[in-house]
Amino acid sequence: MGEADRENSGLNGRSLVLIGNPNVGKSVIFGALTGRYATVSNYPGTSVEISRGVARFGAKRLGIIDSPGVNSLVPMSEDERVTRDILIDGDVGPALQVMDSKNLRRSLLITLQLAEMNLPVTLALNMYDEAGERGIKIDVEKLSAILGLKVIPTIATQRWNLDKLQDAFYNTEAAVSSVRYHPAIEEGISAIEGLIPAERISARSMAIMLLSGDATLRAWEGKRLAPELIRRIDDIRAGAGARFNEPIGSIINRTRLKTVDRIVADVISREADTRSKVTALIGSLSMHPVWGIPILLFVLLFMYYFVGVFGAGTSVNFLEKVVFGTYLNPWAARVVELVFPSGFIHDIIIGPYGIITMAFTYAIAIVLPIVSFFFIFFSFLEDSGYLPRLAVMVDRIFKMMGLNGKAVLPMVLGLGCDTMATMTTRILETKKERVIVTLLLALGVPCSAQLGVILGMLGAVSFKATVIWGLMVLAVLFIVGYLASKILKGDTSDFILEIPPMRMPQLGNIGLKTLVRVEWYLKEAVPLFILGTLTLFVLDKTHALSAIEAAASPLVVGLLDLPVEATEAFIIGFLRRDYGAAGLLQLQKNGMLDPTQVVVSLVTMTLFVPCIANFFMMIKERGLKAALLISAFIFPFAVIVGAFFNLILRFFRISI
């Protein structure tokens, strides 16, 4: 970063840090301010990822960090600890707290903790329109006066008032807390304050955390305090704790909540609820155990036609047959043959396993239009508020698998990318839940690219084929999840999830999310398509492909009743499952798979081993041993299920 950039990056070259509860629109604001110019990396010493970017206000470029969502700055999870640590010793400037206008009480609990830290804080009162629709009127000026902080109402999805957030980057006025605790607690706070060194946050805030027994600060104590000081702090904490019949942390939290309740009573008034009765009714019905099912079926049917028929049919046919088949591939062949009429370079560019004729054709002409339509559909579901309602509706079913409804969120995210979804299993409270969901993601949740190809193949057969495939995969997931819940030891957690209102998604927001995800696909997936093609090219030239096909033919041909050429698709499926599915699609287009073989091959491919990226993410999140055990189980299990499914279809002569 040059001098001019540093001068423009905010306060002394340090970045603004976004703070807030989960699902308050932090990421939407981050995306709106930075566009697509962001990097994601692990916070040092953890597996928690944070996003860093550059906000753009005209010619100004200002650094910004999106921290993990928190419900408290007294950490109960690794995500919350990372956010707290960023505030304690991160090289950041002022803070911007993004608040949910509909649930001011929850957000203000964090505000009071930030004020105790004496950090420069600006408040973004987000979802301001949704609060108004619910009849919640907030006196912004009074709230600002009570807290001594600048408060900016925003509607992130509509980009309303986001330009006013620029001042937050230059805020240097530290917040001041007015919360006072029980005299015995205040005495303990004062005693500890005099023992700890100066930090980025106030000594009072550190003293409160230490007095409340925050175990996550033990590492900080070991680095910053002498053993004698640690013992004195422990004595002060023990002495203060002996004067109460409950933990000091509970008393501190209750005092803060009383302060919050007084503030809420002062600044909030209620008017008539103006929310659309239609959207409210749909939102209520979508969580109903009976009426929610037809809504879910409608959503799935819409996805089938939008992604499977229009995206994988009309769009793919145009790109593959017209753009690539009529123009690009013939033109590339003519150009290459002018210089390389035959030989190694000719084959690696436009041969049967050529970078243009196979890798680019698969990645751009076949898979890209499918995943693009899926990204549009998924972004619509995200912004509509339907996904949390789906979690409520399936809670009872998930309980049978030792999970709760919250587990459906990473599994639905897996329809976008299993790798990222595996990372989001951190939202689950227990190790048992995280392991089960990681297993199910790796086993039978197809990513967007693979799902798009699958829907395209099934759409060319019949709707019945789609239903059979879907029911088979869901049945396998349920059985495996149920058995895993019985085998794995550990407890399950309670189901607590805030439900946002149903709303009509903003086209601009859907477009931005789709664009970002397509960009991710082009950067992450296309290079793997090229790598996969080169792998096949090398295997073909060394005749290893024929040897592998011969060795695997008893499984592919004998058990699955598939043509021997399908072996190639399963081999490359080790590298990336959607590429393997694309190989099956090519066989179908060449008339080499009948309807029964299409469904059998897709069930097997869906349950096949996780892609390399997901495998490494499993190592990162669950450990090498767990990742190897999961993969070792999935491969033979997928083949066995595929063989059994094939046997059932053919024995009972089920037409598809």
Textual characterization of the structure:
By secondary structure, this protein is α/β, with parallel strands linked by helices. It has helices at about 5-10, 25-35, 80-90, 105-115, 130-135, 140-145, 185-195, 205-210, 220-225, 225-240, 250-265, 275-285, 290-340, 345-350, 355-385, 385-395, 395-400, 410-415, 420-425, 430-445, 450-460, 465-485, 505-540, 545-560, 565-575, 575-590, 595-605, 610-620, 625-650; strands at about 15-20, 40, 50-55, 60-65, 90-100, 120-125, 135-140, 150-155, 270. The chain folds into 3 domains: about 5-170, Rossmann fold (3-Layer(aba) Sandwich), CATH 3.40.50; about 185-270, Helix Hairpins (Orthogonal Bundle); about 295-495 and about 505-650, no CATH class. It contains 29 helices and 9 strands. The strands form 2 sheets. It has a 7-stranded mixed sheet with strand order 2-3-4-1-5-6-8, with helices on both faces. A two-stranded antiparallel ribbon has the order 7-9. A hairpin with a 2-residue loop joins strand 3 and strand 4. Helix 21 (about 450-460) packs antiparallel against helix 27.
